[in-house]
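Batch manifest, entry 17 of 40.
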Amino acid sequence: APADGHRIVTGTPDGHTVTLPHPLPGGGSPVPLGALTLPGGSRPVVALNHRSVEAHPADSDGAGGSLWSVTPDSSGGNDAAGTVYVPPIAYWHALRPRDERGSIALRNLTDARAEELFNEVAAAVARHLEAFRAVEEYTGPSARELTEEAAARVLPEVSDARLLAGVTALVRNAVDRAVAAARYLEPPKPAQPAAPRDTARTKGMFFDHEPEHGDDTTLRNASAWGSERMHGSWWAGGNRWTAIRQILAVNHVLGGQPAFGPPTPSKVPFTSVDGWQRDEYTVPGDSLTWPSVLDKLPELAYRAASATTSPEHRTGLLVLLEALAAGPLADPAGTVRLVELIEPLGGEAPGRGRPEAVHRLGQVLRKGARTVVVLADRGRNTRDDAACWLALDHDPTGAFGPVPGFTLDHERVHRQGIARDRLTRLTALVREQGPAPWRPEAAEAFHTATGIGPLQSAALLSAAVQEPGAEALTLLGAKTRAFEEAQARLDALPRDDRHALLRALLPEDPAELWATGPDIRAAAEVWQERLSSLVRVPEELDLDLSGTTSGAVDLVLNAGSRTWLAHGTPVQDGTGRPGLRVAGARGTIASALTALHTLAYTLPYGHPLRAHLPVGLAALRGRLADPDLVLDLGLHWTESGGPIGATVRAAHGLPESGGADADGLVRAGTALLLAPGYGNNEKLLIRPAGLAGPDDPAFGLVEGTVASHGTGDLLALRALLDEKTDALASAGAPDGSPHHPAQDPTRAVPDLVAEAGKTLDLSTDAAALYLMLLALPDPTDRNCVRWTEWKPARIKKARAELAATDLVVEAKRSRAGRSLFLPCGWLERGAPGLPLETWKERLYPVAGSTRTLPHLPVPELFAAAWARVGDGDAPAFEELDTRATRKGRRR
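Output type: structure tokens
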């Protein structure tokens, strides 16, 4: 309690009191807790100052500050190594001296003995450093162990390990400061000139090669095709040239020249087997993964010559192409493959891995004309008993074969290239003449020959990067949003076919790019051969496909010829017979359903493309009916955060553990399976063929167990099996009549428009506009004009007539895109979803910020909304029901 306003007095259970000034002269008001009896008899006052505990001299006036402080439950740092052993303040009343003899020795420590302690610890640090530098992989005692042993020799009285650790840390800190001071005072050594190759022995081959715009960031962006790009783990600031240096080094050694980087580590001796040898020196490691560009060299060469490529990207591409043209990498033609090599880890503790395996990085292995270069460390396998290396294997014969000491995990043979003289000629032409001129007539000719669409044709022939600059868009006569959509449509094409088109555009003689332009005839032949049967949404149809992807749309329209969910990981049961196949499908089912719903809603009724919707739905269901298909939808945890396996086991009466079949899976009915997941937990897999339909109890069990954000694919799977989706896909099938937007009620439900007009005393146009506002999730002014094709005066007249009634309210609302609204609550939403009236939430599911898509055919949606109005459930603001307060009694 405060005493006379200047001191804080604290009483302790043993009858003693302690005091501290309030506040302290230096500021702060620590709260005294009691007196701490230390070895030797001193009893400082212990006080709490925020999270720290401070010790002050007894009967102190506070002018001298605290003696020491400690923060329990912290590391303490190098100069307070014993901090981790300090218990919480609540237990300090039970503190007892651990090592009284050691405490006496420390209090009586003489200068001579302190000097001896310092010298011994310094010698231990020096011995550790010398031993560490003498070998490539040090496995001896740590510096901490050696210094603590040294301190124990000088201070045998200190018997407690924790006290010894604290003392050693203080001495080690003093040694480190003394070493730092000595280095600071030591005069610098004069710089010695080094030959480039000698410097490469420490810094790596081509360490000083830093061409302008040849850095990793520029090369990554300039060589990207959509999501296909060089990848790596370097995201820090500043430029690096790892890719171009490694490419130069690899081409150097593949050309038969020896590597001249840092020496190959000798800790793991190389055993020559079957004529294999290892270079004495290494190539650079730790680079962007660039070998994927080997399959795209003609495309990159074509982009380098394109007028839409920025100067920075063009320069970077020329640097890249010229580096590749310096050796065999430019034209692999089946003689170069990228491989993942598995190296078993030996040693006494295989579970911990073999440390020396890291020294494979950059090694060059040779047998005759064949060369294998280790490019990157792929880490360990799941059992941690084998290392994985990414390597480039060059065999001029194309025969390849095993690499001694390794097993092959994956391989990709690079067959697409470009003749070195052709590539060299193109790069020289670009440097001499600049980019080839843009020819709009070439884009028009390709569109005419293929029907791809004018904007997609321009995007393809421009070979532009994902985000071209304003100058490039001006040259193409395109707007940013439209060009992005065109590129997305191109990216949805099968990858190999898209790149075949780009390769075909590059004439055999690159000079033709400047004389006559790209080879349109060759590219059109590739289109006819590979893509003429592909069903695509015509560019001129101008559908609003927001909320889905071009790839998912193409999947639905071509589901019968696509390999949707056809690949997966086979589940082995030890018999060698084909069994179940687990396909990672998180987001896949929901994506397909969203695309189907989007097409069903946006495609005009009667359009020929609508005939593909029921066919696509049947194909998707056929794939889901595969009895061997098992879906991994990422179902690991319940809504409360517990493992899902326990809930599924309890629901099916299974034991708490065990019960797996020979394939390692636990069956919970015909549709649910449990597989090993994270740690000792299980994950839930879905076998669609085992579901009895959309009402299968498995849906209810899983939906009621996992969090709502994890049920998207499950709900989509249920919808794909539901008969209501058949009606949605089959509605509006082509019948020979002109196609029209289903959202136009005058053509979709003319009788309903007449009934609404008569009931509400509205003209036909005003009644149609009201039905669109009433039923549709996106009746923006622009959409209504697009659906009805009305002239501005006609739509203006209908809006004015409707606005004069109490059926709607007129207002301005963010992101609404319209000025007329139903008289009810309003639901704000993020893109791509549009905000809408709360009355509509009973017409179709409205979830988060996703685009709202009806689950009914649009004509049925109009009928359902009008039926609600007829049943007395018309839109209206909710009445606020308040009870009148009682009047107070007069007094």
